[in-house]
Specification:
This protein is of the alpha/beta class and 491 residues long. It has helices spanning 6-11, 33-37, 39-50, 67-72, 109-114, 149-162, 179-193, 198-207, 227-234, 258-261, 278-301, 307-311, 314-328, 336-350, 359-362, 366-373, 375-385, 390-404, 429-437, 443-451, 454-457, 467-481, 483-490; strands spanning 24-29, 55-59, 77-85, 88-96, 99-103, 123-126, 169-172, 209-216, 242-245, 249-253, 271-274, 408-410, 413-418, 421-426. The chain has two domains: 6-275, NAD(P)-binding Rossmann-like Domain (Rossmann fold, 3-Layer(aba) Sandwich); 279-490, N-(1-d-carboxylethyl)-l-norvaline Dehydrogenase, domain 2 (Orthogonal Bundle), CATH 1.10.1040.10. The strands form three sheets. An eight-stranded mixed beta sheet has the order 5-2-1-6-7-8-10-11. A three-stranded mixed beta sheet has the order 4-3-9. Strand 10 (249-253), helix 10 (258-261) and strand 11 (271-274) form a beta-alpha-beta unit. The N and C termini lie far apart (55 Å).
Length: 491
């Protein structure tokens, strides 16, 4: 079969939406599955529905990447967004045509800087992983390119400034707190390190908008098991097929004027421009991530293996819903209707028939996850109501039960026991060593040891009235009747 390209689609007399020619308005750092299923999808829809009329040039952030593959397909790729909407199974297919090309700055540094000459270029987007926004003081202005992403960005901004052109709206999508602010700090550090002067520093500060953003979509990437059949049905070879869930939500912390340049509202896209993205971040972390972290360890110890099956189990699903609706949502500040709608979408997302989301995968680093995702809701609920939330408290007992079953430690894996089988417990080395050292404790001893571990929780849990006794009681009940029955009684 011929590779996917504009010429191939013309031969097929493809009659779907395509934008073959348009000015490049977006420079995107990162060519991975997420940005192509999220940002590029939104831009493609804006092109079709609201006349954005803009192409994307992708910059490959590391030396090895997909630039050759992307360029061989004229930037085209097939995207499938799949899942449930209003209780119905859906599978939306779209050929994305907003990508103009992909540059490898390690081989085409001059072409990378030449992008700064384009007066129509207005948006810079990035997703270079959580480790991407870092300041590395061994980077030099003369590097071709700088090793770090903020270093590359500073080189590009400096080129733009020297040309006397306008600045950018910079949309950071990395999964770190206040990503836009952190990126700006790194750029300012490079300005100082490289002695680039006050004029440039002022231009960066006043002519560019560094936006912190919240991104939300599960992207499952290249469907290896289905790719051959998909290409056969399509009649072309697509080596860049991407898949993700139907749900998507992007919150951008920026001046409202950005909405005029980025016409997502006219396209009906789930994007918000707000003064403060923090409440939406809190909503996602506490409801979506909190539901995961408060449910998966108990569900795994109750015999389940993937999230979707948990949603089909009345006991486990009821436990999760009670945690969300009765214990988490009352602690949040956004309007209740918005929170309820988001919670409803979470249940549909967890029940996605196209994603086999393994509970053990979610269990990775559960200590830090429980602290960030569940503990704030637990504490806020207790302060507000003067009592402990039953399901969130039980989830901590389930966390201890999951880790305390580990009796063998080898390298970075503590091996736990579920029935007649073993399973890997993965966390920071010090966490695994702690539980291994307490493997012979009884329920009361392990509860006290864990709850009073300040490296894990500070002094929050040990000062929470009645919490230790409730956890011990829950662990005893798990031993008496099993995890599944104990979850049932809790909800």
């Amino acid at each position: 079969m011929e590779k996917l390209s504009y010429q191939t689609l013309k031969k097929q007399e493809y009659d779907g939406y395509l934008l073959e020619e348009a000015p490049v308005k977006v420079l995107q750092f990162g060519e991975g599955n997420f940005l192509r299923a999220f940002v590029d999808y939104f831009i493609d829809v804006m092109n079709e529905e609201s006349g954005f009329n803009g192409k994307v040039t992708i910059v490959q952030p590391i030396a090895q990447g997909l630039s050759d593959m992307i360029n061989e397909q004229d930037g085209l790729y097939t995207l499938f967004l799949r899942g449930r909407e209003n209780g119905k199974k859906v599978n939306h297919k779209r050929i994305i045509s907003c990508v103009e090309n992909c540059l490898n700055p390690y081989e085409e540094y001059g072409a990378y800087l030449d992008c700064a000459k384009n007066p129509e270029l207005r948006f810079l987007v990035s997703n270079t992983t959580e480790a991407g926004i870092v300041f590395e003081n061994d980077c030099k202005l003369e590097d071709r390119p700088a090793k770090s992403f903020p270093g590359k960005l500073t080189q590009f901004l400096y080129e733009r400034h020297q040309l006397g052109l306008d600045g950018f709206v910079i949309l950071s999508c990395e999964l770190i707190e206040h990503n836009g602010e952190e990126l700006k700090k790194c750029v300012q550090q490079y300005i100082e390190l490289w002695n680039l002067g006050a004029d440039f520093s002022n231009w960066v500060e006043h002519e560019n908008i560094f936006c912190s953003t919240l991104v939300d979509r599960i992207v499952t990437g290249y469907p290896r098991g289905e790719a051959e059949e998909i290409c056969k049905e399509a009649g072309y070879q697509d080596n860049l097929i991407d898949t993700g869930e139907v749900f998507g939500f992007w919150v951008i912390e920026a001046p409202q004027s950005v909405k005029e340049e980025f016409p997502f509202e006219k396209a009906g896209l789930p994007i918000l421009v707000v003064d403060d993205h923090t409440p939406y971040k809190q909503r996602k972390v506490r409801i979506l991530n909190g539901a995961h972290s408060s449910m998966v360890l108990a569900a795994y110890m109750a015999g389940q293996d993937i999230v979707r099956n948990c949603m089909e189990d009345q006991v486990i699903c009821r436990f999760m819903n009670k945690a969300i609706y009765d214990e988490i949502i009352p602690t949040l500040t956004l309007p209740k209707e918005e929170l309820m709608d988001f919670a409803k979408a979470v249940t549909e997302r967890f029940n996605n028939p196209y994603i086999d989301h393994a509970l053990l995968d979610i269990s990775l680093n559960s200590t830090a996850k429980w602290k960030a995702r569940v503990m704030p809701s637990l504490v806020d609920y207790a302060e507000k109501n003067g009592s402990l939330p039953a399901c969130l408290t039980f989830s901590f007992a389930a966390y201890i039960n999951f880790y305390h079953s580990g009796k063998e430690l080898s390298g970075n894996i503590l091996t736990g026991v579920r029935g007649e089988n073993t399973y890997p417990i993965r966390d920071d080395e010090w966490v695994l060593e702690f539980f291994f050292n307490h493997k012979d404790d009884n329920n009361k001893e392990i509860s006290r040891a864990v709850i009073h571990n300040e490296q894990m929780w500070g002094d929050v849990l040990c000062n929470l009235k009645g919490f230790e006794d409730a956890v011990v009681k829950a662990l005893d009940r798990i031993d008496e009747v099993g995890m599944y029955q104990a979850m049932k009684e809790c909800s």
